[in-house]
Every structure is written in C-alpha cells, then in structure tokens.
Amino acid sequence: VGRVLESDVPVSVFGESGTGKELVARAIHDSGHRHEGEFVAVNCGAIPQNLQASELFGHERGAFTGAQSQHRGRFEQANGGTLFLDEIGEMSASTQTALLRALQERTIQRVGGRTDIPVDVRVICATHRKLDELVKAGKFREDLYYRINVIELRVPALRERLDDVPPLVDMLLDRVAGQIDVTRPQI
C-alpha cells in the first residue's frame, strides 16, 4: 500500500468478501496525496445495470424518464479525490465502455449530455471475483481490465493472517467499551 500512495495509477484490490478491501482503499486515499479530496465509494453490484451510467457519470435533466433535474455523478463528486468502485465485476458492458473512456480521456459525459467534463480522479477498484476469468469468459472488457489493474493488491482472508487477530480483537473491544455506558447497570 505504501508504494502506491503518491502515484495516481489505478489500483485493483482483490480478496474474498469481508477481507477489508474498502479499508485498503480508504488507507490509500487517507495516506496519499489526494487525502484532502473526497473519497467516494460505489458498490457497482448494488446499482441496477440500467442506472450504473447515471450513478457514475451523472445525467442531464430530461435524459430519461424521472430525470427531473441535473445530477452530478460519482466521478464529479470525487473530482480531486478518490473513486472506489467496489464489485466492479458486476458492471454492465455499456458502463465498462464508458468507464474505459473516462479513464483514458480523463473526461466524462453525463447521460443525455454533450459536453465533456474534465475529471481528476484516482480510481481504486475491488472485487471478490476473478476478473481474469471474467475476461476469458467475455464478461469483462480485456482493455478495461489492463487499464484498472496497473497495480494489483491481494488482501488475504483473516484465516491466513492469524497475527492480525489479537490487535483486531483489542480494537473491537475498545470500540465496544466506548459505546457502553458503565454508569448504567447492564441487563
């Protein structure tokens, strides 16, 4: 993690669900030179495919039914900071194409818009899926895979890092102790 702090190259974080991929992304943001900018996290798997482009790139008023006002997307919100794309393997093919263009050109277009909007964003992606296998299966763009996978970080499961258990338990106990009012009797 320390080696990527001062660069702006895209980083991919791989690991099982629950291994702390977003914590790694936040550590990169908080410790890097973009720490004064926003950290914007997007769970690509939680956004319906027909709304992914609008969520990431924004939309203009009237771009589609229900678009009653202009909406700044996550790229614009993260401008000057970090955009964390969690579960990027769940992204639709059309959104993958738009993301590739945004990474290459460092500009976006809102859905229904015609103006290129410059963005200065560091992109960190994460997934529990094996993107290389999705590429082979034709479900993930190969050119996008190589664009986002400049630096690859693997987060091992906690069962593979048993030395991390005691400090984790201490931190959790401290957190719980801070939330319990010791002046009130516990039932």
What does this structure look like?
The protein is an alpha/beta fold. The protein is 33% helix and 15% strand. The strands form two sheets. Strands 2-3-6-1-7 form a five-stranded parallel sheet. A two-stranded antiparallel ribbon has the order 4-5. Strand 4 (107-108) and strand 5 (117-118) form a beta hairpin. The longest helix is centred in the C-terminal third of the chain and has 15 residues, at 165-179. The mean pLDDT is 90.
Brief sketch in words of this structure:
The chain has a five-stranded parallel sheet with strand order 2-3-6-1-7. Strands 4-5 form a two-stranded antiparallel sheet.
Task: Provide the fold topology.
Layout: E1 11-14, H1 21-31, E2 39-43, H2 52-57, H3 74-77, E3 82-86, H4 93-105, E4 107-108, E5 117-118, E6 122-127, H5 131-136, H6 142-148, E7 151-154, H7 165-179
Parallel strand pairs: 1-6, 1-7, 2-3, 3-6
Antiparallel strand pairs: 4-5
Number of strands: 7
Over the alpha carbons, how many angstroms does the gyration radius reach?
Answer: 19 Å
Strand order of the largest sheet: 2-3-6-1-7
Largest sheet: 5 strands, parallel
Mean pLDDT: 90
> What percentage of residues falls in helices of 4 or more residues?
25-40%
Q: Poorly predicted ranges (pLDDT <50, ≥5 residues)?
A: none
